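#dry-run=false #mode=assembly
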Amino acid sequence: MSVSNQLADARSERIVTGNGSVLRAPILLFFFSGLFWLLVAAALWLLSCFQVVDPFSPLVFPDIPWLTYGRVYPVAMDLLVYGWASMIGVGAAIWILNSMSQNPFAGGYLPLLAGIIWNLGLVSGVWGVLGGGSTGMEWLEFPIYAAFPIWLAEIIMAVWAIALFIGRRKKSGYISQAFLLTAFVAFAWAYGSANGFLQIAKVTGPAQPAIQWWYFGCLISLWLTPLGIGVVYHFVPLLVGRPLYSAKLASISFWGIVAFGGWTGITQIIGAPVPAWIQTASIVAKVLLVIPVLAFATNLHLTMKGSFDLIKPNLALRFLVTGGMVFGLASIWDALTTFRSVNRILEFTWAVPGRTYLTLLGFVTLVAFGAIYYVLPRLVGRAWKYTKLIQLHFWFSIVALGTLVFNLTIAGVLQGFGLMDPKVPFAAILDLTKPFLLGYALGGIFIGVSVLLGVGSFLTVFVNPEWVPESNEAPEPVINEEVSLA
Amino acid sequence: MNRLSKIIGGLFILFGLSWWGIAVYPYLSFAALKENVDPNTKEVAPPGVPGAAQQGYRVYAANGCVSCHTQFVRDKSEGSDIDRQWGKRRTVARDYIKDGHVFLGVSRFGPDLTTVGARQKDPQWFYRYLYDPRLFDSESTMPSYRWLFREQAIAGQPAQNALKLEGADAPRSGYEIVPTAEAESLVAYLLSLKRDYALPEAPEPKE
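#status=ok
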């Protein structure tokens, strides 16, 4: 996996994936769909926030089954993962894999077909879960008629990605390709076998939680993580105009994630009736996972070294690098809270979703927007104009993430100590956490605003001035220093 | 060896190991678990899910009860579950062999439900709790499931399972609130959650 040839290869990406390419339609389809599902997810999630914080709120509907918390919240989480994060990841992956393979075969109809089937799956999933067809298994709520289309679409993407890679013109491969191919194969495998075991074969009761939470580990560590890292490893060197610092570190991050990622999910249910060695193995894997993640973050840091000034004006770079750094923090926090001594306090509390949001809304979402801000102008041939809006989007995202994770974590610690003491009644725990749950709702509102800002700035590109590639000026959002300093 | 085979091969070996260890191995090993028959009393444990409760798990799944309630009791060394009287002993794999669907859950924004059917034995209590949790705890954040009930005109004698409601919750005069079939199966399911039998691998901890 050579590092240095990436820049030369990627220089031709404008010709391959530029205006008029057959891949323009599928990438746009995935981007538009992802942002649409993000809006739906944010709206439903915000609704669930208000419902859980205040049972007397006018947003609680005791007579409307499909608007109760137990249906709305799972749909919001599923859409965040399978709608927003996955679809933007696939869109960016189409761009990257195509521009790196320089394969005359683009097979644009395959990703287009996959995008359509994927959306059909999501629509059926939302319909199914809100309508009362949920499987009741976290992150796998979609009934089989919704899970199957999503899985099928993913298989199509995996076949397309492998075909493109096999027929590539350049015989060398680049690390981002390895991450993206891995994501496609691992997710097809994990999602297929989880649904196969749990929904089709309906395995014996005690095996179900192990399979379900094995899948959750794969979903985060072998689908969203490699998609995100693949995107960062590809775009950051391009934006700073310098190859990735170390191929060795890249290799460590890759093989470490492949080796440890699949084992991490059981840390969510420590103490459950799952064989003790599996729980221990899972804790060890989650701690070891810090090594590849830090290898990635170090590599990113060393690649950026001397170019950190660029983060200020170049907003696509800012989103990507911040996302990567948040990922480093999130994985350290994950590892710390996995130790039995800490976990016995935080298990089952608000700190758990807080931890998941740090990855989903921090790492994954920031990187996804970074990819959009890089790819979209090149895709539609228009330069970015409203950079202030994106700057606002960035700061709102950070403040929202901070508010959300801070409040959920404090609420979780208080709740955890309350739960630990059998003399503290449930009502008292609620009283303790109440102020921080209000903070959670506030964080939710901030997230909602940042989503609106992100979608808004996405849409502005279509009315922006045309971009002439020969002008050599970056089309991604770059702040004009003189203006911003004034 | 070209690079694709290295990536895919490595993935199959390294990632496949976790698939084998956490997904396939429990599937194979737990399938061999048998019920426990007490040599003296001939009591079978776990006793299995009663017929009336077998549809209730669907209502439990459909409405995301698992978003806030767990269904497993950890060992005394892992947390206060037993001291909170959520169960007399920790739950083990064998407890779940007769459950078609297992809802362990990962959040306790509400209490654990492993033994809720042993703590509360009156269906009326569950109906009223589902209808309006604020009847029991004025600050409870649990959603009200009013749509699991319907209002009907009282024909002659009031229905046996009609909800005993007072004050603002009371129905119009001449009418009564009764549970729907969904509510009945959900409550039958909740009542079946007892775990009140003994298993040799999970003795009750001594005080």
